[in-house]
Design a protein that fits this description.
The structure is a single chain. The protein is an alpha+beta fold and 364 residues long. The longest helix has 19 residues. The mean pLDDT is 95. Helices cover 30% and strands 26% of the residues. It is globular and about 60 Å long. A hairpin with a 2-residue loop joins strand 15 and strand 16. It folds into 3 domains: 69 residues, Uridine Diphospho-n-acetylenolpyruvylglucosamine Reductase, domain 2, CATH 3.30.43.10; 150 residues, 2-Layer Sandwich (Uridine Diphospho-n-acetylenolpyruvylglucosamine Reductase, domain 3), CATH 3.30.465; 130 residues, Uridine Diphospho-n-acetylenolpyruvylglucosamine Reductase, domain 1 (Alpha-Beta Complex), CATH 3.90.78. It has 10 helices and 21 strands.
């Protein structure tokens, strides 16, 4: 078990922002994870368990506790037929490496989820989704370490309670389980999912291979925001999260938009409406609202709105602070709420902030 004292967390997040953790431990396997958890209990310190750091914003003051970076790696076929393969993926595997491997093997189901930063352990937490595919479409089960009962167990699909960008891991059982591995069901004879507009346009009247879809997704994502491979490209993916709107709430948003932004914006929104429909209602058109309410050029210190996808905040200077990011969030969310009545929330986990600090930036 490798342990560091007062180690900066910023290099271990895709935002490249954040102060030191009192202790930072690197867990290479389940045994080291359990040892690190016991260490935190003995020290009576709060615990942060993370992987690729792709959904975190860490305070400039850091984290006064024990941070554990789970780095277990491995992929194994646990079941295979002529039609499908079930692949167990350890949580420390880089997610895009898993997608690349599946595409090389011509196993369908996650090719549209190419080029998403982070480790595989995060896949089920938010029911990660993009370009017409999501975790709930391929996850069979998740092996976890139960911090409450101190046992390893397997949670089957029905127990995960997937919803739009959520599961038990970020709702009812948040902070209870550490995801050790995830079993995926992938298809050997799959068909291209071209439901997303950019893909449909690109492959009109064509039947792309799985590798062609992956290449297209990578190109599309790179056009919209930088892959966080270095500090000046730092981001946590979508920073702003809008609620699922009921029919009535969506209509009220349209009325308010017409009053504040005019008829043209209302027409654009109406054209988007069918793509926003989900089983529970309508997804908030977050990027559209930000672009129309505050524009795409807003900057606070070293943080700025991503002009190609305004739902993302960039650490464009490579030296942005967490307070600059939250100041930018406050400006954007306040303007959107004032003009549309929709309150945007923060997508990434906020680590190391006091309640007073969060209240200052309008975070409940």
């Amino acid at each position: 078990m490798q342990l560091k004292k007062n180690a900066l967390l910023s290099p271990y997040t895709t935002f490249y922002i954040g102060g030191p953790s009192r202790y930072l431990i690197f867990g290479q396997d389940v045994g080291e994870l359990i040892e690190a958890v016991e260490f935190a209990k003995d020290k009576n310190l709060p615990l942060l368990i993370f992987g690729g750091g792709s959904n975190l914003l860490v305070s400039d003051s850091g984290f006064d506790g024990v941070a554990i970076r789970l780095e277990n790696i491995g992929m194994d076929i646990v079941n295979e037929t002529d039609e499908e393969v079930q692949l167990s993926v350890d949580s420390g595997e880089v997610w895009d490496d898993v997608v690349r491997f599946a595409c090389e093997e011509k196993w369908w189901g996650i090719e549209n989820l190419s080029h998403i930063p982070g480790f595989s352990g995060a896949f089920s937490v938010q029911n990660v989704g993009a370009y017409g595919q999501e975790a709930s479409g391929v996850v069979v089960s998740v092996e976890v370490y139960d911090l409450q009962d101190n046992v390893i167990k397997t949670l089957n699909y029905d127990e995960l309670k997937f919803g739009y960008r959520k599961s038990i891991f970020n709702t009812t059982e948040k902070n209870r389980y550490v995801i050790l591995s995830t079993t995926l069901r992938l298809q050997k004879n799959g068909e291209p999912n071209l439901s997303y507009g950019d893909l449909a346009d690109r492959f009109k009247n064509l039947t792309p291979t799985i590798q062609e879809i992956r290449d297209a997704i990578i190109e599309i994502r790179n056009q919209k925001f930088p892959f966080p491979s270095e500090p000046t490209k730092g981001n946590s993916g979508s920073f702003f999260r809008g609620p699922i709107l009921s029919d009535k709430d969506f209509e009220l948003m349209q009325i308010k938009l017409s009053e504040t932004l005019g008829h043209d914006s209302l027409e654009k929104l109406e054209k988007m409406k069918s793509r926003l429909k989900v089983s529970q209602g309508y997804k908030t058109p977050t990027a559209f609202l930000i672009e129309n309410c505050v524009g795409k050029e807003l900057v606070v210190g070293g943080a700025k709105i991503n002009p190609n996808q305004p739902a993302i905040i960039l650490n464009y200077s490579g030296q942005a602070t967490s307070t600059e990011v939250l100041s930018l969030y406050k400006q954007v969310s306040s303007a959107v709420f004032e003009q549309t009545g929709v309150r945007l929330e923060i997508e990434p986990e906020l680590i190391g902030f006091t309640k007073g600090e969060l209240a200052e930036y309008g975070v409940s």
